[in-house]
Design goal:
The chain is an alpha+beta fold. The protein is built from 14 helices and 18 strands.
Length: about 475
């Protein structure tokens, strides 16, 4: 009875509907009358403060924009309990939101990448609006530049939206993986450890899905005099040293749209000039590229920049030489080398680049002879894109070819990847496929022993309106 009387006093002055006794009075009036009645009953300052806080929460709730049911008061109800329950509910919502943010959800459905990258790029950008690469205008005075701003070219550019979405997604995966690996790789690690961590991270970010999305070719981690095409086979115990120069070359793809991009790591600063020479040469090649640009002229510009550098190693000075039998190349869907080569020395053919083409602009510098040859144990293989049907007598070769077709198609692969697919005793079958011309072997490419080589590479797209260096990042 006393409790009912107190509540009745607390709502004194409210206008109650005769049917449902719904609260419709002014919130400020309620607040003043409740405090006045509580003071009359002799409540202490502590209780008054507590109830005042509850009243403030009630007032806030009453003035909220949210559509809530009208507050009704019946004899025997405890108003303070309702206020506390509302406050508890809000705290729980805040905790849930914070937990979601800690789990990678920044609110509004936008996820953040984890410190060790694990969130797929398509989940980071659910709207499909992936970051663009570096946008470069074509050279002034060229026909490509004159036509770039026409409505026809802009329409053609818009028609390539699906292609751009695929390559930009693959490029963002490459950027995030390589920036993580640049911090992860340290002297003392085995080359297998490095490659497997890189490939595991790439598979998560690209969200590997058969031939629709995944790695475009094996991770190259060529050391010192070896310039390209080295990745460790299982059992290889090579360890990265402080004085080593390591080229990290890997690719990602979405629907066969390949990002081919590479960088060089050196922990000893004595190699800084070697790396600077190759990086500037690659940027020169990118700058000279464009619609109607002649491949031979690009090679001439690259060589001129590359060989303007010198590097001093152990008291001896070496001119940085462009490796003349290594080249950049055009890239097509599911085809890493699509037919055109971009030389890095003068004297190449004068074939022109064309609108809509993708190119991997890569340059290699060396302190050796500037020529590479096949050496060391082979690890890289790739199905011949133009191979015709061949009747295979060896059953194991036919079985291995089915595995290659299902998992790699015409993309490059390595022996470690066959081991990962639980293939065993396949070397003779693999040799049979190579001898039949169905699969090509790509052994490591090396300059003279004792020298050092470096590499930098980017993939660019000759759009109708501009040139986009798709794989460009803040690192290089």
């Amino acid at each position: 009875m006393a409790e009912a009387e107190e509540i009745q006093n607390g709502v004194n002055g409210l206008e109650l509907d005769d049917k449902d006794q719904t609260l419709t009075g002014d919130a400020d009036e309620v607040k003043k009358k409740k405090r006045k009645n509580k003071k009359k009953k002799g409540q202490g300052p502590k209780e008054d403060a507590m109830n005042g806080d509850a009243d403030d929460k009630l007032e806030t709730k009453a003035g909220s924009d949210e559509q809530e049911a009208p507050l009704s008061v019946e004899p025997g109800d405890d108003v303070s309990k309702d206020v506390k329950a509302s406050s508890s509910s809000k705290k729980k919502k805040r905790k849930k939101k914070k937990a979601a943010e800690d789990a990678g959800d920044g609110g509004g459905g936008t996820r953040r990448q984890t410190d060790i990258p694990t969130v797929a790029i398509c989940d980071l950008f659910p709207d499909g609006d992936y970051p663009a690469g570096e946008i470069c205008q074509y050279k002034d005075g060229t026909r490509a530049r004159q036509l770039a701003d026409t409505e026809e070219k802009r329409a053609l550019d818009r028609a390539q939206a699906d292609i751009l979405a695929d390559v930009r997604q693959a490029a963002e995966a490459h950027r995030q993986v390589r920036q993580y690996m640049q911090k992860y790789i340290k002297p003392g690690m085995t080359m297998i450890e490095i490659c497997e961590r890189l490939e595991e991270t790439s598979r998560k970010l690209i969200k590997e899905n058969g031939l629709q999305a995944g790695l475009a070719f094996p991770t190259g981690c060529s050391l010192n005099h070896c310039a390209a095409h080295y990745t460790p086979n299982n059992g290889d115990k090579t360890v990265l040293g402080y004085d080593d120069v390591c080229k990290i070359d890997f690719g990602t793809h979405i629907n066969g749209r390949i990002i081919d991009c590479a960088f060089t790591l050196a922990f000893n600063p004595k190699y800084d000039n070697l790396l600077a020479a190759v990086k500037e040469a690659t940027n020169t090649g990118i700058r000279e590229s464009g619609i109607d640009a002649r491949l031979g002229e690009i090679g001439c510009a690259i060589q001129e920049v590359m060989e303007s550098y010198e590097v001093e190693l152990d008291g001896k000075t070496y001119q940085v030489k462009a490796i003349r039998n290594l080249n950049g190349h055009s890239v097509a869907p599911y085809r890493i080398h699509a037919g055109k080569t971009v030389p890095i020395v003068k004297g190449g053919d004068m074939t022109r680049m064309e609108e809509g083409e993708f190119f991997a602009i890569e340059t290699f510098g060396s302190t050796g002879k500037g020529v590479v040859h096949d050496d060391m144990e082979c690890s890289h293989y790739m199905k011949n894109f133009e191979a015709e049907h061949v009747s295979l007598r060896l059953a194991k070769a036919r079985q291995l070819l089915n595995v290659i077709n299902q998992n790699f198609g015409t993309l490059a692969f390595c022996r470690r990847w066959l081991d990962r697919l639980e293939q065993t005793k396949y070397l003779m079958a693999l040799k049979n496929l190579c001898d039949s011309g169905i699969v090509d072997a790509y052994p490591p490419l090396c300059d003279i022993r004792g020298c050092y080589t470096a590499q930098f590479e980017h993939t660019l797209y000759l759009r109708p309106t501009c040139k986009e260096v798709i794989s460009r990042g803040t690192d290089y």
